[in-house]
Design goal:
CATH architecture: 3-Layer(aba) Sandwich
Shape: globular
Distance between the termini: 28 Å
Helix content: 40-55%
Structural class: alpha/beta
Order of helices and strands: HHEHEHHEHEEEHHEHEEH
Number of domains: 1
Mean pLDDT: 96
Strand content: 5-15%
CATH topology: Rossmann fold
Strand order of the largest sheet: 2-3-4-8-7
Largest sheet: 5 strands, parallel
Length: about 280
């Protein structure tokens, strides 16, 4: 199954909306001069499906009590989150051209009390699932039906705190908690397999008491289907999303050098052209 999902994630073609969202990210990176491109591109379809089709939220009332919560635990991939929040009306799209600049709303990691729609300040890795557990447990105690979604990086889950949170989620039978792993197989310094292999990934989450499934993290239809499934088990859910780091840019795909990249206008325009030429 693992090798099949890797191949599927590599072969899938991006549609016009996914290309457009990537173009917005590249333009933000050009304006900022640098940014975490690799992880933003690997996670983009996951966020796209969540905000287009799954999450219950109201951009006019970002603190709506019964809203679903999404936590980007891998906070360095925030550009993917920012373009979706801007599209949905949480803040003006003009803010995207001011990313990372002094005094700007949008910094290099999401900040809860600064950016409408951001549920947790993240970037110090290994904390998002613990926050999600707390939110899911609070929703249970208060008898609310909203769900908590947490997106983790595959390198991030080297952190022991992730597995402490997983044990707590299982103990409390948090079936309103969905942990999603952006499994692009590459972290900042190299391949996940060479630094600290997380295989067997599916079995690990299952052994921690999660209902566990795998998906192609770039396949919009499959993501919609799996995220919309009716749940019958009193367990938290882990979704292993097989993705490609830097998806859509040939020289970036699977390349740790694109984890964080400086991009000038000339390079940025070439990247946008490459994306559009592939349509």
């Amino acid at each position: 199954m693992l090798n099949t999902k890797i191949k599927e994630s590599q072969e899938i073609c991006l549609d016009e909306r996914s290309v457009n969202l990537r173009e917005q990210i590249i333009k933000s990176v050009i304006s900022a001069g640098r940014g975490h491109i690799g992880g933003a591109f690997s996670s983009l379809e996951i966020l796209r499906v969540l905000y287009d089709d799954i999450l219950n939220y109201d951009p006019k009332d970002p603190r709506l009590i019964n809203r679903d919560r999404f936590i980007l635990s891998k906070g360095h991939s925030c550009l993917a989150l920012y373009v979706l929040l801007a599209e949905k009306g949480f803040f003006p799209k003009s803010e995207l051209s001011r990313c990372f600049k002094t005094g700007a709303m949008l910094g290099g990691h999401p900040e809860r009390d600064k950016i409408p729609g951001v549920e947790a300040s993240t970037g110090s890795l290994g904390h998002g699932l613990s926050i999600g557990v707390g939110l899911a447990l609070a929703a249970k105690i208060q008898k609310r039906s909203n769900k908590i979604y947490v997106l983790l990086g595959d390198g991030e889950i080297n952190e022991g705190s992730v597995w402490e949170a997983a044990m707590a989620a299982s103990k409390h039978k948090l079936d309103n908690l969905i942990a999603m792993v952006d499994y692009n197989k590459v972290q900042s310094a190299g391949s996940v397999d060479s630094i600290m292999s997380m295989e067997p990934m599916l079995d690990k989450w299952t052994s921690f008491g999660f209902e566990t499934i795998e998906v192609n993290g770039h396949d919009i239809s499959e993501l919609k289907e799996k995220l919309s499934l009716e749940r019958t088990l009193s367990k938290p859910l882990a979704i292993i999303c097989h993705t490609v780091k830097g998806k859509g840019i040939n020289e970036a795909e699977g390349n740790p050098e694109w984890h964080y990249k400086r991009v000038d206008e000339s390079l940025g325009e070439n990247l946008i052209k490459q994306l559009k030429d592939a349509l």
